[in-house]
Design a protein that fits this description.
By secondary structure, the protein is α+β, with helices and mostly antiparallel strands. The protein folds into 2 domains: 264 residues, no CATH class; 138 residues, 2-Layer Sandwich (Conserved hypothetical protein from pyrococcus furiosus pfu- 392566-001, domain 2). Strands 1, 4, 5, 6, 8, 9, 10, 11 and 12 form a 9-stranded mixed sheet that branches. α3 packs parallel to α4. The chain is globular, with a radius of gyration of 23 Å. The two termini are 26 Å apart.
Length: 434
């Protein structure tokens, strides 16, 4: 059973911060060092100082990015830079953005979700890695708070729940332009009847993690740790809940973009690779037309050529690229006999099993040595041309029904199989467990 609850969200005090745009931050896991520095310089109360503070060579257990985040978080609350809302509420959230020249609006709402340690009603589609979980656990231990939401999807084919929420909207609590140039708007709703409706509508649903697998598992680990530490077995203890954003899986504002692979080739020459590829794929060769075309134009041409059918990729080199079309998807029965039919027919599974693992000989243990990821179509071409990588694979996006089927089967896609857009903005709403 899905169990959700309203909460007293913490938000920036508009009377203390003249321009809220300046204190918002991208999600911690997409912040580069350059972006981190720019956010530090943008405002002394920028949210990056809490979710991804700077590290220092002199850091110790008593003074590091986590203890500094805790100190600042407490100080900002004490100085009323951050304020808790007066009543337990849910927080409707909309993001207006443009992708592929189309204007879209994603809808959802902040709410607390009771943790499901056994993943019975909360379904995951990606494995989690130990290093990101340790990082977020340290931050949660220090601040005793959920500083960023995670995004989950529920199923509502009629969209009745979101329509009811939309009918209640009045004056926004927060409206900002994010780093992404998207418009992010949050409202506060403490209407008990509507909250009851939300709880009832979601009770028998199944939720699918869209973004935040590591943070969700971290919350489970933290709750178990707190139970052992405090001997508090109250199921309603604050640490048994996680602040999330719930969106309808059928929301027209949701988009899934592909994540391309940048590859450093092991000891294999291009001619040998092409000959081996031809065992499994129809290989069409296209010459790279030199500097006469921009990376944007070239990327658009390649994307158009692989979008015509399933199981189609582009393998890009500096002077040529290949369009690869799988001849027979049943060959995946040999490469992944222990996997479900839906897993074996995912484009990203085909790429990893046949090409990256079988033909290139890159294993899970050596994957990080040879493969990097980018969501930027143009970057996937430019980095190869600049010699930073030997080649790149451009993919089509995973489809929402594929994600749903994988999660329902209890399976996991290869890393970086999905990239949801729009990304949630950090700094809009927080939840403290104290």
């Amino acid at each position: 059973m899905v169990d959700v609850a309203p909460f007293k969200g913490i938000t920036y005090n508009k009377e203390k911060i003249s321009r809220l745009d300046d204190v918002m931050s991208p999600p911690y896991d997409i912040i580069s060092k350059e972006m981190q520095q720019a956010l530090y310089e943008r405002h002394p109360y920028n949210f990056v100082r809490l979710i991804l503070g700077k590290q220092d060579p002199s850091d110790s257990e008593k003074n590091d990015r986590y203890t500094r985040a805790q100190k600042q978080f407490s100080e900002w609350i004490e100085k009323q830079i951050l304020l808790a809302t007066d009543k337990p509420s849910i927080y409707p959230y909309k993001i207006e953005y443009t992708v592929q020249n189309q204007k879209r609006t994603m809808s959802g709402f902040f709410i607390l979700l009771r943790l499901d340690p056994e993943y019975k009603v909360v379904k995951a589609h990606e494995r989690t890695l130990s290093k990101p979980k340790a990082d977020r656990l340290n931050l949660m231990r220090a601040c005793k708070a959920n500083l960023e939401p995670i995004e989950l999807l529920y199923i509502d084919e009629t969209n009745e729940l979101q329509q009811r929420i939309d009918a209640s909207l009045g004056k926004p609590l927060v409206q900002v332009t994010g780093y992404d140039t998207f418009t992010h708007t949050v409202w506060k709703c403490d209407d008990e009847n509507l909250i009851w409706t939300v709880k009832q509508k979601l009770a028998n649903n199944i939720l699918f993690i869209a973004d935040g697998h590591h943070r969700y598992q971290t919350a489970i680990n933290y709750a178990q740790e707190m139970k052992e530490k405090t001997q508090n077995n109250d199921p309603d203890a604050p640490f048994n809940y996680r602040m999330v954003i719930l969106s309808n899986m059928f929301d027209e504002g949701l988009a899934i973009l592909p994540t391309h692979r940048l590859v450093t080739l092991p000891t294999i020459d291009r001619k040998t690779l092409r000959r081996q590829l031809e065992k499994y794929f129809v290989v069409e060769e296209e010459k790279v037309s030199g500097p006469s075309k921009s990376y944007h134009q070239r990327a658009e041409e390649i994307k158009k050529s692989i979008a015509t059918t399933d199981h189609k990729f582009a393998l890009y080199f500096k002077d040529v690229y290949y369009i690869l079309t799988l001849k027979d998807e049943h060959c995946m029965d040999t490469f992944a006999p222990d996997r479900s039919q839906i897993w074996r027919t995912l484009d990203v599974s085909i790429l990893h099993k046949i090409i990256i693992e079988h033909l290139l000989g890159v294993t899970e243990d050596t994957l990080e040595d040879h493969v990097r990821y980018t969501r930027d179509d143009e970057e996937a071409l430019q980095f190869v041309d600049e010699g930073k990588y030997d080649a790149s694979f451009l993919l089509n996006a995973t489809k929402i029904h594929e994600l749903k089927a994988i999660a329902e089967a209890g399976e996991h896609m290869p890393q970086k199989s999905t990239y949801f857009l729009p990304k949630m903005l950090s700094g809009l709403v927080m939840y403290t467990m104290e």
